[in-house]
Amino acid sequence: MNYKRYTRFPQVPIQNRTWPTQIIEKAPIWCSVDLRDGNQALEVPMTLSQKLKYFDFLVEIGFKTIEIGFPAASETEYDFARYLIDNNLIPDDVAIQVLTQSREHIIARTMDALRGAPKAVVHLYNSTSTLQRDVVFNFGKKECIELAVSGAKMIREAIEMDTSRTEWFCEYSPESFSGTEPDFAVEICDSVLDIWQPTKDKKAIINLPGTVEMASPNVFADQVEYFCKNTRWRDRMIVSIHPHNDRGTAVAATELGLMAGADRVEGTLFGNGERTGNADIVTIAMNMFMHGIDPELDFSNMNRVVEMYEESTGLLVPVRHPWAGKLVFTAFSGSHQDAINKGLKRMKQHPDRWEVPYLPIDPRDVGRDYAPIIRINSQSGKGGVAYVLESNFGLQLPKAFQKDFGVVCTDLSDKKHCELKPKEIFELFDDIYVNVKFPYELSGYREDSLDENHVNVEANIKASDKLITIHGKGNGLLDAFCDGIEKVLNRKFSITSYHEHAMESGSDSAAITYVEIEDDQGNKHLGAGISSSVTKSSLRAVVSAMNRMITKEQSKK
Ligand code: KIV
Ligand code: ZN
């Protein structure tokens, strides 16, 4: 690759930068540019009705400023602005913002589009970078400033003459700020503000776009801090940033830009926008949320946000998209599953403080379920399998079962090259361990207590079509049952571990018993039994373990 054609980005002449030690403590003023920057980047731009629906949705999420288009550039965008205003569809506390170039007829048409809105931001821009001045406009700094200043004057006059109810706000963007000499960016913005004469009570917005992301996000932060420190109007302006994502770091640039002094962020949901997109407001807001900061935007139903976005833009949110993708609260790896499982259990001790390994937030805070968090494939481990069985079916697998069955699941998933769904896992567990009926099946039993410490048991066991009756004696039901089996079936083993629990709440609930038995060779075998009676479930568990032992022995022969 011919990297020699490219040049390193110059350092920003800033001394004693302070942004690296700043902390983001509150949400910025958000401005959605989905309906302008986002929409203009779509292969098929939104229709009027799609724009209306999306506008309502942006309002519902909590945006108070929404850039709705470039009305002088297209009839649809003009009509959209007028439709919103003429039908009173804009809440009083929401400002609509539109983009305009610095040309008289464009500004006049822009004002016509906005007149009558409760609040309107007229957003003037012209390109200021060295490259654009040279290649596109073929003019110097002086002409570039004149262009911005003439637009600023026209807007001021138009606002002064307006008699509608609209409360007007002014915004200026030195487009391609990221490629503009830092001192020139200050000079041109200050010249615009000299015309607008903002006050502390009525600030103007200066928007610093990373029109093309040209360097690492620390450089953008340097540019923003340089600007904030050198402008004459800092206390009478709202500093806005508008990063694009060419190098894939628009979110980082936004966060560092906020640390560098920006008050406001322009971006889009999921970062839709020109080329690699704008800064993704969902990610930036959720990053704040995970630090305990109120993002002032409501993403508590993330699935709906994704649906609305995909339906309106025709684009897809990738499965690994931060906070919103289908797989972002899912763990496939066994060690992750195990840690999540333990973390979720520990949460019961401190429900008000979220701390779960591998889950930076509680998925329920964005309207997601726990169900798909842990999914089972060949990378999964015993913890994940145990979690799936417990959370979906209430089974609390003892350690030995977790280990044994974990291997069964990962092997099967590996063989099938696919994920195992919870139902499939439960059925597999049931098939392998529960109420195993071959070669022996418990058909009935009777227990008599001999004295306080001893019982007699008589049980009927089916083997093919034969019914065998066994009699045993011991210091408990299971002990007596094992004694009977040894005497009649000539099978010797002892029970080395025993667990039982109810499977559902309620008086007629089923119980499950898990046993581990050890044969006279020291080999261990697992079995489980389910029944509405706890004692029956325990005998079934012993028969299951014995049957599995016999089958294993026979397969070795
Ligand atoms: O990216 C950009 O520079 C823009 C401006 C028009 C603000 O979208
Ligand atoms: Zn942009």
Describe this protein with a few key phrases.
alpha/beta, TIM Barrel, Double Stranded RNA Binding Domain, 3 domains, 17 helices, 40% helix, binds 3-methyl-2-oxobutanoic acid, binds zinc ion
Summarize the structure.
The protein has helices spanning 34-40, 48-61, 75-86, 104-114, 130-137, 141-161, 182-196, 217-230, 250-259, 281-289, 302-313, 334-346, 382-393, 399-416, 422-433, 477-489, 534-556, and strands spanning 29-32, 65-69, 95-100, 119-127, 167-175, 204-210, 237-243, 264-267, 440-449, 455-463, 466-474, 493-502, 511-519, 524-531. It is an alpha/beta fold and 557 residues long. A hairpin with a 4-residue loop joins strand 13 and strand 14 (524-531).
- Whole-number total of structural domains: 3
Structural class: alpha/beta
- The rounded Rg comes to 35 Å
* Shape field: elongated
**Superfamily at the CATH H level of the largest domain?**
Aldolase class I
* Widest beta sheet: strand line-up: 1-2-3-4-5-6-7-8
CATH uppermost class of the largest domain: Alpha Beta
Say how many strands there are. 14
Give your account of this protein's structure:
This protein is an alpha/beta fold. It has three domains: 26-313, Alpha-Beta Barrel (TIM Barrel), CATH 3.20.20.70; 334-432, no CATH class; 440-556, Double Stranded RNA Binding Domain (2-Layer Sandwich). It has 17 helices and 14 strands. The chain has helices spanning 34-40, 48-61, 75-86, 104-114, 130-137, 141-161, 182-196, 217-230, 250-259, 281-289, 302-313, 334-346, 382-393, 399-416, 422-433, 477-489, 534-556, and strands at 29-32, 65-69, 95-100, 119-127, 167-175, 204-210, 237-243, 264-267, 440-449, 455-463, 466-474, 493-502, 511-519, 524-531. The strands form three sheets. An eight-stranded parallel beta barrel has the order 1-2-3-4-5-6-7-8, surrounded by eight helices. It is elongated and about 105 Å long. Bound molecules: 3-methyl-2-oxobutanoic acid and zinc ion (ZN). Zinc ion (ZN) binds at residues 37, 209, 211, 242, 244, 274, 278. 3-methyl-2-oxobutanoic acid (KIV) binds at residues 37, 99, 125, 173, 175, 207, 209, 211, 242, 244.
